[in-house]
Amino acid sequence: MSFQSLGLAPALLRALSEQGYQTPTPIQQAAIPLVLEGHDLLAGAQTGTGKTAAFGLPLLQHLSDRPNPGRRPRALVLTPTRELAVQVHESLRGYGKHLRVPSTTIYGGVGMGNQLDALRRGVDLVIACPGRLIDHIERRSVDLSGIELLVLDEADRMLDMGFLPSIRRILARLPKQRQTLLFSATFAEPIRQLALEFMRQPREVMVAPRNTVAETIAHRVHPVDSGRKRALLLHLLAADTRVQTLVFARTKHGSDRLAQFLEKAGVRAAAIHGNKSQNQRQRALAEFKAGKVKVLVATDIAARGIDIDQLPRVINYDLPMVAEDYVHRIGRTGRNGASGQAISLVAQEDARLLRQIVRLLGRDMDIQEVEGFAPATPIRWGEGAPGKARAAGGADAPRKPAGHRGRRPQGKAPRHAHAGAPGGHRPPRPQPPRHGATPQA
Q1: Beta strand 313-316 with 295-298: parallel, antiparallel or unpaired?
Q2: Is the confidence at residue 359, as pLDDT, over 80?
Q3: Which of 65, 131, 152, 324 is deepest in the core (most CB within 10 A)?
């Protein structure tokens, strides 16, 4: 299938061709015709499959087909983070480069002056974070009564971040007669309940099973005492200093401390989290994308806007408190058929979280003790080990010296247990497009 067959306007096809995009991804093939037909849409696909283009291309076509008689915005895209708002805006500007669709972003952490100026001049499209948009609503600096098309991007994350009251306040300002699109990497039941509240007979598209990840990602667990996680992280990074690595920490302060530790050890690192100013976050992300910074330490929330092709490695310094967040984290690697590594540093207190993640994914994890970093007391995994275990060193580590006895995680599960997946089956393998590049924003 080609983009021409989806019914897109020549100006959009021209922009896609100039950017080297030839073949739509499965979510784009499924979603774009439904959006162009005017349906409300509940759409899910794993991270990196091209959701932004799936809603952005028909959104731009809708706006260009109907000239704006006034200054009120006609389309609104809500995102959970500033980084994602900026990323979506950049992508849509690229797709709409041959169209006249004035747009702006609205998010916190920066002054309101430029945002106010753009709204006064008049825009067709607003990409916004809920909190700052509420500020503009209260100041009466934005009029949402002309919105024809609403998009909720990463809706699951907005709910996780507590934006539901803000979303409801925003929805109360929108016309009831509108088209609504809800895009998300995962669909928990609260998402479906929310969709029933404000969508009209939505069509549903799910191009991958819930909470699945790319089969090209290798999942590895390194057991370690919590007090030695920093040293083990440095050891892993030192093995190949050329590999760009995204490291996840649980807290903002923890991210800062870890980045500072790595810098002192001679590793070019930066931290990105909610306490950083927007300029600091954008600079850190730009330097990471350019390869000037080799390690980016991030919290779950701040990482939602990180979109980097061919990121080879993600390391979970801290496991996420919610198993679904593991899917979002590692979705930054193993994209478009490329291989990727998802490495987790797991101490005894993390064993329960790891079991939840393995149950969610329904797949093994390769447990490898790294020589010199094995925990003083073997980790008690509880009911069912979370995968297959190997002695200290593992396949990629130096061989053990003679006489060394590697410790092995304890557990009574079968060697190739599938962690409680129904019937022991793995999720189906997602099929990438066969020919041509595809827009992955």
Answers
A1: unpaired
A2: yes
A3: 152
The residue behind tokens 């899910």 is 44
* CATH number of this structure's domain 4-206: 3.40.50.300
- CA dihedral of 108, 114, 116, 121, whole degrees rounded to 10: -140
Q: What is d(CA 309, CA 48) in angstroms, rounded to the nearest whole number?
A: 9
Class of domain 217-424: alpha beta
Q: Which amino acid is at 400?
A: K
Could you tell me if 38 and 28 are in contact, meaning their C-beta atoms sit under 8 angstroms apart?
A: no
* Model confidence at 384: pLDDT above 70: no
Is the pTM higher than 0.85? The answer reads no
Q: Which two tokens stand for residue 333?
A: 């690697």
Distance CA 9, CA 31 (A): 16
Residue 365, beta-bridge partner list = 387
Q: CA–CA separation, 269 vs 248, rounded Å?
A: 13
**DSSP state string for 259-283:** HHHHHHTT--EEEE-TTS-HHHHHH
The DSSP code for 250 is S
In the chain, domain spans: 4-206, 217-424
Which pLDDT score is estimated for 150? 98
Secondary structure tally for the chain: helices H, strands E: 14, 15
| Same-fold call for 4-206 versus 217-424 | yes
